[in-house]
Amino acid sequence: MNTGIYSAMTIRRIEMKWLALLLTLIACTCFAAGNGVRAAEQDGYAPLYGEIKPLSAGDTIYVWTKQRGRSADNRFIAVQTLQGITARTDRPWLWIDVGDNTFTDYLTKRYDIRFDRRYAKDFDSLLSKLKPFTSGRYVLYDMQDRPSISAATTMAGLLDAVAIDVELEDIAQAKGYQQAIDVRGKDCRWVYDNYRDQLNDHAIIVHTNSYREHPSVGYLRDWGPALKALDWWYDDEKLSSEVYSSITPCSPVYGWQDPTTSDEGLTVKLHSQEGLYQVPSDWMVNLSVHAAMGPAMKDRTFKQKVERNPPEKENDVHYVTFIMSDMDNILTEIGTNSFYSNRSFYANQHRGEFPMTWGMAPSLVELSPAAVDMWYNAATANDAFVAYCGLGYFYPSESPAMSKHVDQLSGFMKRADLRTLLLIDRLMPDQDLAQDYSKHAKWFTNMDQVRGLFYLEYVRYAPHDGKIFWFDGKPMVTARFDFRDEAFYSAVRRTPQSLADSINDLPKDPSRPDGYTFVTVHAWSKGMDDIYETIELLDDDVKVVQGEDFIELIHSNLKPESARKAK
Hints:
Elements: H1 9-30, E1 60-65, H2 73-89, E2 94-97, H3 102-111, E3 114-116, H4 123-130, E4 137-141, H5 146-159, E5 162-165, H6 169-174, E6 178-182, H7 188-195, E7 204-206, H8 223-227, E8 230-232, H9 237-245, E9 252-255, H10 264-273, E10 277-280, H11 287-296, E11 318-324, H12 331-334, E12 356-360, H13 364-367, H14 369-378, E13 383-388, H15 402-415, E14 420-425, H16 438-445, E15 452-457, E16 468-471, E17 474-478, E18 481-483, E19 492-493, H17 496-504, E20 516-521, H18 528-536, E21 542-544, H19 547-557, H20 561-566
Parallel strand pairs: 1-2, 1-3, 4-5, 4-6, 7-8, 7-9, 9-10, 11-20, 11-21, 12-13, 13-14, 14-15, 15-17, 18-19, 18-20
Antiparallel strand pairs: 16-17
Helix pairs in contact: 2-4, 5-7, 17-18
């Protein structure tokens, strides 16, 4: 993690002075000071971090500690809306402590960002301290009136006014805040009908306001105010489609699920059909602080540690690669107790002992470039990264915005040094994956830096038996096995022994497509210990490789189907 660069205090002081100067110059030039309500556009492109102001080396951020229990969520929501507003009007002033110091420690060590805990348990004083960066007003809502939570979250951003529950109104007034608007009895539809022209049309938050539907109600409440984006949760499909169609194509949907649909697949299909993509983030906290490194590091590129020498060709072997699932979900990379700090994943004792492939959400180069830096700095030469799902979770077969999507994705992947891409689509059970999928895959294979694709199906990740398709001379490899606990279809392997036995039984011949196995590792039921145990049970002529080498070996040893048929 580059601890050696600060081994001498003198060197550290010099580096910090230069870093402070650099980031301050960026801070002065990235954004104008206007009060526009749309996302700040640069050369026709609206960055994912919107109008959030950059952090600079030496900045101090106040820490507030979230209390446990749903009864404290009204303070949690108030502080988050305050957090999002200040990140946009001045710069990030507030970090919410939910029990994981991984990212704050890294910001301090790497970028000299300091964290002050004087207000950690002092909600009242925090309101006073940060009032100058707001309009000095509040949006009144009622935690018992669930739709008003969504309305208050949006209006907080439009009015630069803290969202205050009725139980906290006396405190806000005592600190000199005045009521801007009362949204009790109102909902997200009322906000949309009356304020649509003031809303950011480059993002939308679709996030529950009902604890009965999901307990994450209190989370992700800084992001709407930071972006001036609509916080939407409405169960009318026709109206929701109208709202989604008002968002600029190829824009993100933050949160998770949708009240108009019955499951994940239908939610992502709905958003994909509107040309949008999902950024799973329902439990996210402090996203406005993560994103403040976006403008500060907007010209930064990143470098993986994998060695990119041509992999050695061998005969009489079977190649296998393991890819951790679900890493389109930014919570796995930057959420509280993310995979980075989890002993089942990146903090596992066996990491580095065998080739492993991790997902990387390409959008993090703007949403949290410091986290990309953190993951890559801690990587070993055995840790490779694959771009997971594109800009976010979406179904390519449903999206009408593919040209714009891949244009933006290409830039993000180049910045993040990503050369392979994992796609998820929803074809089964309606249709089989076949060669005519080329009309969807071509968007990605036409990207110069993409060497090959991995493919998963929604729900049943591996129904295609490891088949390899060729599009534009590049392979798309389907998963052969799904390593998880729940055995609900034939490709699932529940134990290291059963998975190893299945792999050992496969041909040891890299000149054949069935000489390669892509295993998707279900992150919610399996981890690094399970992979390590599996590898220990593999035959000597089964070779584990990371994802990039896996694709390169296929290029070296196999030929596209079209070339075979031409012979």
